[in-house]
Records
---
Amino acid sequence: MFWDALTLQLGYNASLVAIGAALLGVSAGVTGTFLFLRKRALVSDAISHATLPGVCLAFMLLVAFGGDGRNLLGLLAGSALSAWVGLLCMNWLTHHTRLAEDAAIGAVLSVFFGFGIVLLTVIQTMGVGRQAGLEGFLLGSTAGMLWADALVIALGGAATLVLVMILRRPMTMVAFDPEYAAARGLPVHRIDLAMMGLVMAVTVVGLKIVGLILIVALLIIPAVTARFWTERSDRVVLLAGIAGGVSGYVGAALSASAPNLPTGPIIVLVSFALFALSLLLAPVRGVLAAVLRHLRFQRRVHIRQGLLALAQGQKIYEPLTLRLLKRAGLARADGVATEAGKARAAKALRDEKRWEIVRADQAHEATAALYHGLRDIETVLTRDQIAEIDRQIGGPQGVMA
Amino acid sequence: MTLELAANHGVSVQENGLGSSPLAIRGLTVSYGQKPAVFSVDITVQPGAMTAIIGPNGAGKSTLLKAALGIVPALSGQVTVYGDALEKQRARIAYVPQRASVDWDFPTRVIDVVLMGLSRELGLLGRIRGRHRARAMDCLNRVGMRDFVDRQIGQLSGGQQQRVFLARALAQGADLYLLDEPFAGVDAATEKAIIAVLKALKEAGKTVVVVHHDLATVTDYFDHVFLINTSKVAEGPVEQAFTAETLQAAYGGRLATAQIDQISRALG
Amino acid sequence: MSGEEFVPLSLTPLLIGTFAAIACALPGNFLVLRKQALIGDAISHVVLPGIVVAFILTGAISTWPMMLGAAGAAVVAVVMIEAIRRLGQIEPGAAMGVVFTTMFAAGVLLLEQTDTSTVHLDVEHALYGNLESLIWLDAVGWSSLLDLTALAGLPPELPRIAATLLGVTLFIWLFWRPLKISTFDEGFARTIGIRTGSLGFALVIVAAIAAVAAFDAVGSIIVIAMFICPPAAARMMTNRLETQIGWSVVFAVVSAVLGYVLAGYGPLWLGGADAVSAAGMIATVSGLILACAALWGPCKTRAGTPKVS
């Protein structure tokens, strides 16, 4: 079943939903990256919750004018409008009052959502029998989706993606360094608004598939996932798009393959799985790599400090230092240096002296800046330079590693 | 010498050789990420002296202080305060953080900030009484901020904020005062007021340690210096440790030769 | 309205709503100042998986296991956010976004997979509660307040939220000084021996307990609104923390009472027939209060420079 879904053999609608979800995932991942790099990830939370009153008002208007309250295009237009109002409120609060952005986000999301729920209960009492579909906007529902709806989503996803691609350069610059971007003459405020507009578009398109609560996940999780794998912003954008697309596609396929697997949550959980793998296993920023690196680093610091203490005949007080020296065969349990330890200690002390000369000498300014206590001097100076320094120090020559 | 336990490792005072200096640090290494910001630093602060910690930007001056106080975690090293573990001697330390480290929009008044200095003796629920208030007022008076008691702290100038922080430290009634860049970005009047207070503390036998960045005033203000650039460069009385050579070693090429000449001339 | 009508039908929901609002607004003051306002948002989302797991484990809708489940989920969420933030070096907002959406998704999925047809457990209920239904049927009028048999019939949500409010107030009162100092100046707080890490965690746990107890009675939407809107509005009224707390309590009470009344009677005044969601209306009123404070509050703009991070 799952395989059939993955290969788009579960019927026209399911396939369209899978493609739509993939497109949505890609554009959410890419758009979310800019938000994340701008350190405003949770703005998406406010925007998505702020869609609810718009959906309800649009429904009421559509019904009042005798139309079908469930017209998807009408509902999406309403949601976009109220999300935009919410966004403006949030911007106004952060710029014109003392509130920080997090409080503004929370205020907008809770108040708009609360008002939306008031409207939802109004609709329930309006006696219009067909409002059931509206609750679907909270959590998304692809069951019984009309072909036209699926088409709207697929097209919307594609259109958003095209817009993101067009705007990606200026958005990268603003996300990376807004002040520099402003100095370069970019209209930072308008680009910010455009970024938010895209977030809004993604949210609105995603309402029907994943619902307004979980669309936030698609905007945040792929971007965070991608950040683990690279330091380059263009690659983060690319990887986030891929992570989002894969989550959307696999999630939609999984959900179509068995009953009681709601599309939105499955998509979110798939993207979280990708995130968790990245958090643990990414080569540089991953937890595993970081822990190993920290242990190695700690070991280097302690051994170096221990060697310097040995060389200067000081007692070693830290048990960890002593343990590490012992394990490396550089000292005995009572803290006395072994032969190898003595040699290494002499070298360490000599290197410290050499560094001292380097750091005091203006001619070595660039090299001196590289000092941080652990760097081997051989990695920054040539043999001849070291020999020259040793002549300045005097004493025995040729202490080399 | 006493047999009290010192530091975190249950090593006795005699064994670790740190003595009963107001602040003694051995082998302190602190790193943010993969590069030590402070590497294997030893320092022994002289009681009753005014010590400046100096070094170029990013040399680890503030980090050293913060790690000594347990505000940032250290990778290795030991710290004793009056020959004892830091936790046991907290009451004898007053710390003045950098001004930029707090949100000055916080809803509180000048007097409330100074009263924070009394929180150890007030405990969790102790009521603030007239004598506490009087002491806080006295501290504000000493830094020349008496007229600003009821101001919201955000309405003060940078120099005034710095003085309020100093008043809070005075209220703690400590023996050891640690100040992080107290003269950064303050007006001349504030600098004068602060240095007068610090000198008075020294007269009263207190120990003062200041992270300082202005080389021109070192000889005027301090009697001990500690030069650091990731690792220790020099330590001792100003006339011995604050020389053209040590400065060159600490600042390298980053300090213009002309400036060093000027300072060494000033040093005679 | 007479006591015969008011006491059984409106008194208990009003009290529960008010207590819930205050219990959330009190810790909210500190969360807003610590730039952790959205912790309330995160907690209220993860309550759903907590109660679903509790339901699956016990097979019944009973209050205590569900509250424990919700509180457990809140703790798991807080720990996960902190772990992701530190281990992955991810900014707190994004870490929060990852955790609460995932846990919420897991909750919805579990709910779909579980047979809950026999019990009243659904997402909508979790979101906006059912304040209106918490009536006191045993009451006949004001005299019932002194009648022990009638008091025994009080909706159990009332004593629970009252106890929670008491606990929250006690925590804030007891740790007032350390909370204030560590919120203002964390570095200084550590040098005078305050365990800022544990205290911060305790604050979040207290907020979580308030959220869970309030959620049980009124749904998560009020919880988020009350964590943020009354403290944020109070922030525009004063430059003293003590006064700010006072204002936030006033705003919370006004939101709860006015919101409840408007939800119940507003539609009637407008010629409608049925009441609207009280929870939603309370959130809306708190938003209107915040809007007024932001427009006309005496202290609405920043007084000092923000912290350099």
---
Amino acid sequence: MHKFLIRSFVSSLVLLFTLTVAAVAKDVKAAFVYIGPTGDHGWTYQHDVGRKAVEAAGFKTTYVEGVPESADAERVLRQLANSGHDVIFTTSFGYMNPTNKVAKEFPNVKFEHATGYKREHPNVSTYAARFYEGRTILGTIAGTMTKSNVIGYVASFPIPEVIRGINSFTLAAQKVNPNIKTKIVWAFTWYDPGKEAEAAKALIDQGADVIAQHTDSTAIVQMAEKAGVYAFGQASDMDKFAPKAVLTSVENNWGPYYVDRVKAVANGTWNQKDTWHGIGDGMVVISDLDSQMPADLRSKVKKLQADLASGKVHSFTGPIYDQKGNLMVAEGKTADDGMLAGMMTYVKGVEGDIPK
Amino acid sequence: MIKIVKRDQPSRAIFFFTPVLAIFLTLVAGGLIFFILGFKPFEALKFFFIVPIADKYGFSELLLKATPLCLIAIGLSFCFKSNNWNIGAEGQLTFGAIVSGGVALLFYEQEGFYILPIVILAGAIGGMLYASIPAILKTYFNTNEILVSLMLVYVSKLILDYLVVGPWSNPEGFNFPETRQFSDSAKLPLLFEGLRIHAGIFLALAAVVISWFVFYKTYLGFQMKVSGFSLKTAKYAGYKGKKMIILVFLISGACAGLAGVGEITGPIGQLHREISPDYGFTAIIVAFLGRLHPVGIIFASLVVAITYLGAETAQIFMQIPKYTGQVFQGMILFFLLASDYLLFFKIKFIGSKK
């Protein structure tokens, strides 16, 4: 009897809580537009994890996957705005112009565009993550773990986001190991398992014993596993795809931001802003460190992670030189966000030229 | 007992009936797939095929989507009717878009009535140039046009990648892979306020009328038909085969190039990496579903266009994976090819008593 009372008390509490959450959630509906399939285990997968966090917070969500950046994006956005969604997250750069176009027609709907720079209307915000902070961690690990001093890097497209990642990675690796070289292969794709695997193979054949990637599939870590070299997971924790090769992963953690923004819409406190969050705000997360890494490296990485989070360490701290030896950032200075946003030159130590 | 008998002649009635049968079978199979996936089949089909075009805006989007498909398929029907297998319309579309986009960028921030015709013409020429490669290689070097035209698709996409990442990228665009926006004079005029349907639809309609005239009222159309039935007969008849091959490829390339122009100077308004969701390949389905007949192609392009729109609506309202749209396109082609069997064979039911 006693137990029964407690149990019913607890369950009614739970019920009450659920009802309250539902009441707070009101009717706010969020929509997400994805470039790829939700099962890519990379970019889109992580955005969908974020969407599920919004659902878990008691809001209704809708998503459309595989939306091309062609003329189709605009129609999907308009349809979502027309069908009672209050906030729409557009999660690929190529949706930038359609997002702003549709936002103009639907001033009461909030639009959140990932990785873009245009906020032409008051109902458009932009957001992105400082992934380069994660790459500072990866570079530190790669520089320590390499024996051949050749590090391979599979890149997607020569845009500032990717160049910034290569530079941040290389600078960190040089700091722990001045002899390393970063070799780049441009895959010219974000997601193409076949091409990515080939790129990784080419780098391994050139002597690379650690492979980093800025493309989304798990093909590269799997290729590394087969070849017996180290690799890092991209976007999601890819350890289970290549347990021996993957030393750690840089995870894109959109959930907290999404929940925050949807709640702001529900409370009427949403305002336009440009968000660029890193490790400190939890948008960039470092997965568990593999036990193959020496204990002192692991503790060093943990400390670096904390320092990046607190702002004590910045990924781009001078002196930084470009490939020709020109000073990019003076000693004691750090690169400002403007410089980071438009970064299109390699730092010293990166091999080859940026495709033009 | 059932017996399958070869027909003396392909049935003309069945020729036009099988596309309808294929669409019907696709709906049945589609409903079945929805059912197996755990969705209500009729509701799902409603969201797929009716809801997207239930209002004015939806209908205009259907026409917008069907325009490039129709235009490319009309061009392809010139090739396919005459036994030339141009699989690379996607590449011709891309190259046409590159050339016309390049011209549009030359007129950046300039206005004038003469700009748009030049931009459109440039796109047609671009498509023709690109289609002439497999045509010339086929006529003078006996290469296989299927392989050459297909491979050139990937080449064209790499050229586009190179241009939008490098020399043509927007100088104010933080090095993102896209060009500047075209000036208004370089864009196709919109037909209605608030809708995206643009003047490009007239290009498609003109292509329909012209192709009908060429196919059924000209000597060239007759030559194409004969070559389609038998290349040897065409040779005995003394037709200039090489000239015709090059001509049909040029027409096909021009149409695909114009489709590319319609996309970039219509709803997109700039060049970037993804200007076409593989219209050039989907148009092959459209051409065959329309039986290579201009009027058939109009209907076929509408049917296939709706599978794109329906997939979006079905995912938004019923959380059905959007890739089912591609499944539908595949099923239509599959059932069409399968039911083509009925063209050449008939099924006879024979009683066991004699």
